[in-house]
Specification:
Blueprint lengths: L6 H8 L27 E5 L8 E5 L10 E7 L11 H4 L6 E5 L10 H18 L2 E11 L1 H10 L8 E5 L17 E7 L5 H13 L3 E7 L11 H28 L3 H12 L5 H26 L3 H14 L4 H15 L1 H28 L3 H14 L6 H12 L2 H28 L3 H14 L5 H13 L1
Parallel strand pairs: 3-4, 3-5, 5-6, 6-7, 7-8
Antiparallel strand pairs: 1-2, 2-4
Helix pairs in contact: 6-7, 7-8, 8-9, 8-10, 9-10, 11-12, 12-13, 12-14, 14-15, 14-16, 15-16
Amino acid sequence: MLQLRPFHFCLAALLFTSSTVRAADAVPGVPPDQATFTPGKEIKILDPKTGGLGWYVIYVPKDYTPDRDWPTIFCYHGKNNDPKTWPFKEVTEGQGYVIVGMEYINREGTNDAKEDIENLNRIRAYVSSKVRVNSKLVFMGGFSQGGWSTSKFSNLYMDQLAGLLIMGAGGSPNEKAIPLLKGKPVFVGIGELDDANKNAKLARDAYTAKGADVTFEEFKGLAHTADVKDQVLKDWLLKWGPHNQMMASLTLAQAAEKAGKLGEAYTLYTAASKMNGGQEAADLAKQIEDAAQKKLDDAQAAITAKKYPDAVKTLVPMEKLYAGSAFAQHATDLIQQIRTDPAIKAEIDQAKIDATADAVQAQAQAAEKSKEFARALALYETYVNQYPKATHFNEVKARYDQLKSNPTIQASAKTQAAERECKSWLSTADNYITNNMADKAKPYLQKVIDKYPDTPWAPEARKRLTALKN
């Protein structure tokens, strides 16, 4: 079985200052409740509970925006050093990661690791309350003592970590961490001339044997330090942090688009487009944006043309389809404008009146064209009585008055009305007579005689009545 030297022995034998011994602290710090965070800036947090020197640092990446969550590294420093973000801020060129330079409860490393994990949880909660931390992309790393500490502390925290960065050190997973290591990315970096080189290679083998996805990088010609320009390290951090987040966001966006949640998809595509390698996401976001803007433009054109029902028909589905985006909000604003603007409301009310009135007018004109003057006059009369506020009222009333004043048309209308009504009444009476229901037939026959005595229909009605009496 693989044997590694005890942790504390290795500390005593191998771990020493990774750069210069801590200089006098010239950077002022602030208590947690007074801290403000700015992209591209590192802030020192005064916190006696953290142990050691009583402070830690937080770096916000210079490309930080608060519209999405960010990969985060909790970085442990080397022996006799201050809490720091080196080497990860330098490797990433200050982009892509929130980096927290942690302090130890006991700087000698002799304390129970549980205490440092409790401290980590407390600080992580604070950091998450101030900046957007991606809980699925939290990494632990460190150099020298920080690398050994990463191996040790992560055994109690593996379920919360996306990966480990063990730099200038060694270490191995314990039994509790092993089930969580399968496929988990672990970077082991060591100087070619570093006294801990052998330990780093043993760590590489130990983590590989337990199923971790290990990347081992030897910094050529270097002793006990890290090469912050190393391309393999840069690529590892990019792949497992920002690029991994971009791919996850892209996958979620595609799923949302497939489900018809275009507002959610657009937001996710837009967020992914700002991440490394996000050009595909940017193109997909643009497609959704163009389609949504086309709908909004069409709706606005309909409003300008006073075709409000057409505008609403376009806008209402957009509220759901693009929910959570500016497109949905714009649609809602336009709908509200249509529904509440007094001038538009008056136009809509008038349009409703005209729509019904115009239909009656069209029917009257069609009847007149067919020389069905009785029906035409009845429809014109309906229009005049029921739609005095219609746009074409004066025009229709003038035509109605003109038809009413024409004796020839009046006579034709009367004849047509008599024919229509008498045919109907005689037909109804005949049905009753056929079914031996003479009493029900008589009233209809009498209507013909009383209302149209001078027409050819009256004799027909009298003939049937006489037959019924006999």
